[in-house]
Amino acid sequence: MAASTQIEIERKYDADQDVVVPDFAGVSGISRAEAQGTVTLEAVYYDTEAGDLAANRITLRRRTGGKDAGWHAKLPGDAGRTEVHAPLGRASSTSDPRVPRALLDHVRVHVRDRPLVPVARISTTRTIIHLLDEDDRAIAELADDVVSATEVRDGTVRQWREWEAELLDVGSAVSAADGARILDAIEERLLEAGARPSASRSKLAHALGRDDLSAPTTGAGLDAVPARFDAEHLAAPVAVAALRALLRALKHADPAVRRRDSESVHDMRTGVRRLRSALAAFGGVFDREVSDDLRDRLRRLGSVLGTARDLEVRAARAEAALDAVPGGLVPGTSGENDAHSRLVEETQADYRRAVTTALRFLSSAPYYRLLDDLDAFVDAPPLGPRADRPAEKEFSRIIAGEVKRTRKRIRAVRRAVAVDDGSVAVEQEHLLHDARKAARRLRYTIEAMSVDAPGGAGAGTGNGQGSGPLGSGAKGLAKAAKRVQGALGDHRDGMLFAEHLMSESKRAHTEGESTFILGVLHERSRREAADALAGADAAFRALRKRATRWRKRR
Q1: Number of domains comprising the chain
Q2: Domain range holding 97?
Q3: pLDDT at 97
């Protein structure tokens, strides 16, 4: 079932029944107002019994009446709420909502395998006014709503009047910056008329008698910092903030994988790796038995995603490699076509099957219980013996350990592998792999710890932009680790692709196909891998310098 999305930028106001909608003449950016008539909207709102959607500032409804009748999911966003629409579809009872798959994919990471039930029924009599600019373009809409809502749980009925001022076609009729100024001007006129900024974030919140649905009556929710951690300088609250941000990023990637968006598998796999690295690093801050169990279960998720991601990378690399082969080098087109079919088309088909396998796992009880347990971990973390250590000292100790671990593995590489000329024996590949993983874990650990305070402006960004408890120099150390990770990763990707080409060449020979172009690509891939490994030596030295500099600053 098809779905469409739009960004909803609106402001809500409470208005008494006797307040008159004002005249908008003279409001900046608005030339005139045009009445659009009155409609009646009937909506049923759905959530789990525990209020999982509300806790994540998501509303899901089935509405009839008006120009946009259908299913709507409203999701939080940076610029405004993202509203996803789907057609009504077949009629269904409120107890069996039959939510369209296109919408359910957006919220499944929060709903999981829990049933959706009706939580409120809302009837709205809406009078619509369009606000037009000097070119007669409708740039904003004012909805004058008289609302009657019934809370399903106990039958409580609530009635009120509200105004919604919403921008129309942001980025087309007006820019986001101009839109904000227009809304400011509209707001000033509405407040002058007697309106008040709404005490509730949404109609559903008002219907349930609450101001903010993201603060559920049970459970802490992702944005809450546990009250027991009231000292920002301790290790535990900063670690919780970091894990909460990483879990949020993982959940953000889930719907994109379900939609099969480009790079979504990569994003989710990276999210899994970041979480695993952080849980490993914070081993003494939390109960290690619990965190190790989560790491093991995350490893399984990462493995499922990794199978698909590796195939995605292989197909893209093959296509780029084939495109780079000079046309005159290939005798005729049959060999090139055979190579494209074998290396690109077959791999893309394998990738699609691997994504289907991954999606089955993302719809399984083990995955849902993993998410449940990760939520429980950040809401009420099991503390370890180092939880109340000062964050700066504890995190410096952790990073020092990660640096030591990484440098030890790099030294093992330099003793056994001729890095400078790019040569490496097959039995030595595991040393490079271990060094790459250590550098990646060092980088991810630093980036996870680069927070200023739990819930603060830079808390848990996971991008290494803040300094937080690590102090200055941490960002440079993370960049150096990333450089090592990149060089060794490029080498590994090149070697794996070369091995794949050798295997496909043998299969092509058996099946009577030309292997010339496969041989060309094989040698080129081995040479690229060797060049990447040769470049790793400079990355090793840069990491050593950064680590020494950071240690001196501590």
Answers
A1: 2
A2: 4-207
A3: 72
